[in-house]
Amino acid sequence: MSSKNYEPRTNGLPYVQKINLSNSNMRTKPPKLCFDCKETKDCFKLISSKINKIEEAVDNFKNLPKKKIIKYSTFNAKFTLNNVPCELEYDLSSFTLENLQKLVNFTTQNSKSSISKKFDENQKI
User: Fold this and answer.
1) Degrees, nearest 5: CA angle 52-54-60
2) Which of 17, 30, 49, 103 lies in the 20 to 30 Å Cα band around 69?
3) What is the pLDDT along the chain (125 residues), one digit of tens a residue?
4) 10 Å Cβ neighbour count for 120?
């Protein structure tokens, strides 16, 4: 094998690159977007703005103050004993079913009697 097979083929001419140093080259304008491309771009902007709003809301969610949890199992009883106002708070979740039934009966009987007294007083006027 001879070394001729491995030499680059230049056909006798060296490779020459022309470089134009003048600044008179006209820059090509970017191609105008077609209607579908504009519509896609607008949709992308809309979606990205919506996603940014969602991310902002999620980031601000941790900064919200925690609200007091309302317990529906607490019962406040206000009454007067010997002309002294009293207030009791019960946790109904610890009551038995029998005790809850007694409380309901007592509360409804007292509220009915107080309502009927008020109704009778209003009728007299």
Assistant:
1) 100
2) 103
3) 455 555 555 566 666 777 766 666 566 676 666 766 778 888 888 999 999 999 998 888 877 777 776 667 777 778 787 888 888 787 888 888 898 888 788 778 766 665 565 555 555 55
4) 9
The domain segmentation of the chain, as residue ranges, is 74-109
- pTM score, two decimals? 0.29
Paired sense of beta strands 84-91 and 74-81, if any:
antiparallel
Residue tagged 């703005």 (tokens) = 49
Angle, alpha carbons 7-12-13 (nearest 5°) = 110
Collapsing DSSP to helix, strand or coil, 2 comes out as: coil
3-state helix, strand, coil in the chain (%, to 5): 50, 15, 40
H or E element in which residue 115 lies: helix 97-124
Q: What is the length of the chain? A: 125
